[in-house]
Amino acid sequence: MTQNGRILFVDLRTPHRELESELVAVFKSALETGCFVGGPMVDEFEREYAQFCDTKYCIGVGSGTDALRFALIASGVQAGDIVLTVPLTFIATAEAISQAGGRPDFVDIDAQTYTMDPEKLRQYLETACVFDEKSGRTIQRVHRRPVTAVIPVHLYGQTADMDPILELAARYNLIVIEDACQAHGAEYFSSVENRWRKAGSMGRAAAFSFYPGKNLGACGEAGAVTTNDEASTDKIRMLRDHGQRQKYHHELEGYNGRLDAIQAAILRTKLHHLPDWNRKRREKARHYKELLSSQADVVTVPYEPSWARGVYHLYVIRVQNRDQLQAHLAQANIASQIHYPTPIHLQKAYVGLGYKQGSFPVSEKAASEILSLPMYPNLELHEQERIVEKVSELFSIQDISRWHAGLHPASLS
After folding, report:
1. CATH 3.40.640.10 domain locations along the chain
2. pLDDT in tens, 98-138
3. What does R_g of the chain's alpha carbons equal in angstroms?
C-alpha cells in the first residue's frame, strides 16, 4: 500500500476496511452477550482453526509466546531440561523455553531455507549427547542435563524439513513442538507418509501467534496451540486459566493466558479469508522472483524446496550490502525490516549460555545479509516494480562506481 508516496512494509488498514461490517458485527455481538473471555466465540474459533490445521484440538491463548510456553510445559519439559531450537528466530522461541524452566540450546540453520538443518541436529545428538538406554533419555555431555525436546521453527512462512527431524526425535526420544507462529497455512510434503501436512499438525503440539501483522492476525495479542494429544489439550486449557478446570478449583499453578472472545471472533472472521490471502502472498512472491531475476548475481531470493508450500509471511532477500540497500530503499520512501539482525545466542539476554561470535556461523552470516521487503496480500504489482527498480538502482550505481575504480561490476565483495 502506498501512503503519501511511501510504500508501507505491511498494510493493516486495507483488510480491516474491507471487513469492517463483519468485524463491527462481531464487536456488537460481544457487547450484546456480555461474554468477553472464553465462551462460544472462543469455542467456535478453536474448532475451525483445528480443522484448518488438520488437528483434533486447538486451544486459544493470549499470545504466541503463551502458546509455546504452555505446549512445552504440557508436553512434560521439566526444570533444567535442554530444549533445542535455532538461533535465527524471534527471541520468544527461547523465552518460552526459559520460562517453562528449560535451557535453550541451538542447532544451526540450513543456508538456503533458514530453518533447522537436520544434519546439524543429527551431529549435535551424536557428538554432544549420549543416549542412556536404561532411562531412555538423551543426556547432553557437557551440561549433564537431559535433552527432552526440539523446536523446529517454520520461519518466514515456510516449514522446516520435518521428516528427518521427526525421525531423529523418535530415535532419541525427544518431544517435537513446532514453532508455527509465522506459518499459518504453510504445508510440508512428508515423503514418509506420502502426503502434504499442514504446519502445526506434525509435532506433539504447535504454537501459533496471531499478532496483528501475521498472515492471520488479531486486532491485538492472541495465540493458539494445535495438537492431536488429548492430555496436552486438557493441561493447556488449565494452564491458560490459572490451573483450574472448574472455577476456583486449581489443580496446578497456572497462568492468565486466556484468549479474549472478541479476538477469537475477529480471528474466526478472518480465517475464512486466509486461504485467499495466502494465495495472493504466493502470487506476490512469484512476482518478486521474476522481477529480481535480472539481479540474481547479487540478490538471493527465498528458496522454496520441492517439499514446501510457503505462505510468505515475510519476503526475505539476501544481499552482501544489506544496510546500504535498506538505506537506499528508505530514501525512496520504501519501508523494509530485518528479521532478525542479531541471532539469539548473541543477544545480551542469553549471554549466560556462553556462546560467542562464530558459534553458529550460518545463522550469523544470514543475519548480516537478510532484508525483508514489503509483503502483504494487497501489495500492487506496480509497487513491487518500484521496489525492485530501487533495488536494481543501487547495484547499478555501485557497478558504475566500481568500473571507475577499475573493478568488475559484478563483484560486491
Report:
1. 14-271
2. 999 999 999 999 999 999 999 999 999 999 999 999 999 99
3. 22
Do residues 8 and 335 lie in contact, with contact meaning Cβ atoms separated by under 8 Å? yes
d(CA 391, CA 379): 17
Q: What is the pLDDT of residue 402?
A: 53
Distance CA 207, CA 224 (A): 6
- Whole-angstrom CA distances from 27 to 100, 259, 263, 265, 342 are 34, 15, 9, 8, 39
Distance CA 100, CA 68 (A): 9
What class is the 274-404 domain? Answer: alpha beta
CB atoms within 10 A of CB 292: 20
Q: Which single residue is written with the C-alpha cell 526459559? A: 98
Q: Where in the chain is the domain with CATH 3.90.1150.10?
A: 274-404
Q: Look at residue 403 in the predicted model and tell me its pLDDT.
A: 40
Which pLDDT does position 399 carry in this prediction?
58
Distance of CA 290 to the CA centre of its chain: 25
Would you state the pLDDT for residue 361? 98
pLDDT of residue 5: 86
| pTM exceeds 0.90 for this model | yes
Q: Are 224 and 259 in contact (CB under 8 A)?
A: yes
How far is 205 from 232, CA to CA, in rounded Å?
A: 8
Determine if residue 57 is left, alpha or beta; phi over 0 gives left, psi from -120 to 50 gives alpha, anything else beta.
beta
Residues of the chain whose pLDDT is less than 70?
1, 398-413
* Tens-place pLDDT, residues 265-312: 999 999 999 999 999 999 999 999 999 999 999 999 999 999 999 999
Q: Minimal CA–CA distance to 174: which of 216, 136, 224? A: 136
Candidates 3.40.640.10, 3.30.429.10, 3.40.30.10, 3.40.50.720; correct CATH number of 14-271? 3.40.640.10
- SS3 of 149, please? strand
Compute φ and ψ for 141, nearest 5 degrees: -65, -45
CA–CA gap between residue 315 and residue 73 (Å, rounded): 33
pLDDT of residue 411: 43
3-state helix, strand, coil split of the chain in percent (to 5) is 40, 20, 40
Pairing of strands 249-250, 244-246: antiparallel
The pLDDT, as a whole number, for residue 407 is 45
